[in-house]
Specification:
Order of helices and strands: HHHHHHEEEEEEEHEEHHHH
Largest sheet: 4 strands, antiparallel
Protein name: Acyl-CoA dehydrogenase family protein
Strand content: 5-15%
Oligomer: single chain
Shape: globular
Family: Belongs to the acyl-CoA dehydrogenase family.
Cofactor: FAD
Number of helices: 11
Structural class: alpha+beta
Keywords: FAD, Flavoprotein, Oxidoreductase, Transit peptide
CATH superfamily of the largest domain: Butyryl-CoA Dehydrogenase, subunit A, domain 3
Organism: Streptomyces musisoli
CATH architecture of the largest domain: Up-down Bundle
Length: about 400
């Protein structure tokens, strides 16, 4: 660079200039999702959270479908065929509004739709994916059980052949979208190993009671799935996969979205703290002028934008077909953990106001406590990385 070249101004919203890495279409998608969230979620989400509900979820799903946000990175069948980076940017913007909205999209696209797209028959794809991409049908993903979370190989839900049919029995727990889903992808033990089944919600013996009394992800539908002698035709099984690689492959795809999404919650909390620090006065001047507050803001900005840069790097690797599951674990472990710390630090800057729903900080912090645990706990991702680093398996 010549001495006379003029540097661009410092951008507090993008201090590393990460936007320079994005294509015009990437920016357009990001701005479209951000605008939708600002119009359809942010004015209402504090009230939804306080009441512990997500009203109009089916309308929201159809709107998200019209944006191309459902099954966004899948191709064909009405899906947008977006890049992994574009999908990640959408997840960031959705979680900046609320983790529950990003969870709705992640479970729909990266779990339920991805399972059918990747492992389903052509008939299953044709039947479900176009309607799910449009938001006309909401999907859920039944893997976790009341007694088996981190160890899905020990699941008790089972499916037995009965002539040409399958009969499913079991319970699934903590299922996002369950009570409003029109279709569930359910994983069960069979004599052949773990298999996935496409279960229409109206099937006799299938029910999805909603889980209440949550203090996290309150603006989200969370349910139990109950399967009592649910009879399905032989065509309901996902034909292209047997064993844990099926559900774990879906989880890897969803965890990637979390790497981005967590940074959305962190950004929202950081921005709230920054604005507050510049306007809140103590001892005759804004608290943002004090060294300790500036140190907090600087540390938060460093971790926030390092996390976004990490997400972008992983997205480019996914687009190139080079992203390993261990690298996704790296991203989820780091970004969710740092996002929680950013929220907690932001709360200290807001003081007592930080616990008020007038500000987004405590809502994001409590949501992230769930995000920290679901789709792989901290400990599980640490052990994934530990095994990759040492070559030694500490899981059992």
């Amino acid at each position: 660079m010549s001495a006379s070249a003029k540097l661009p101004p410092f951008d507090a919203a993008d201090p590393l200039g990460i936007d320079d890495l994005l294509e015009p279409e990437d920016l357009a998608i990001r701005d479209t999702v951000r605008g939708w969230a600002a119009d359809r979620v942010l004015p209402f989400v504090a009230d939804w959270y306080e009441k512990g509900e997500l009203p109009g979820i089916r309308d929201l799903a159809r709107e998200l479908g019209s944006l191309g946000a459902l099954g966004m990175s899948l191709t064909g069948y009405g899906c947008a065929g977006a890049t992994a980076v574009q999908y990640g940017l959408a997840c960031l913007e959705l979680e900046a509004a609320d983790s529950g909205i990003r969870s709705l999209v992640s479970v729909q696209g990266s779990l339920a739709m991805y399972a059918i797209h990747r492992f389903g028959s052509e008939e299953q794809k044709q039947e479900w994916l176009p309607r799910m991409a449009a938001g006309e049908v909401i999907g859920c993903f039944g893997l976790t059980e009341p007694d088996h979370g981190s160890d899905p190989a020990s699941m008790r839900t089972h499916a037995k052949r009965d002539g040409d049919d399958w009969v499913l029995n079991g319970r699934k727990m903590w299922i996002t979208n369950g009570s409003v889903a029109g279709v569930a992808v359910v994983w069960a033990q069979t004599e052949e190993g773990i298999r996935g089944f496409v279960v229409p919600a109206g099937s006799p013996g299938f029910s999805a009671p909603e889980i209440k009394h949550k203090w996290s992800l309150r603006a989200s539908v969370t349910s139990e799935l109950v399967l009592d002698d649910v009879r399905l035709p032989g065509t309901a099984v996902l034909p292209e996969v047997t064993g844990l690689r099926g559900p774990l492959g879906c989880l890897s795809h969803a965890r990637y979205g979390i790497v981005w999404g967590a940074m959305g919650a962190a950004r929202s909390s950081f921005e709230a703290a920054l604005d507050y620090a510049k306007s809140r006065e103590q001892f005759g001047r804004p608290i943002g002028g004090f060294q300790l507050t500036q140190a907090k803001l600087a540390d938060m900005a460093v971790e926030l934008h390092k996390g976004i840069l990490l997400a972008h790097h992983l997205g480019r690797r996914m687009d190139a077909g080079r992203l390993r599951p261990e690298q996704i674990s790296f991203g989820k472990l780091n970004n969710v953990r740092e996002a929680i710390e950013i929220c907690r630090t932001a709360r200290t800057i807001l003081g007592a106001n930080g616990i008020s729903l007038e500000y987004p900080v405590m809502r994001h912090a409590t949501n992230l406590e769930s995000v920290l645990t679901y789709e792989g706990t901290v400990e599980m991702h640490q052990l994934v990385l530990g095994k990759a680093l040492t070559g030694l398996d500490a899981f059992r």
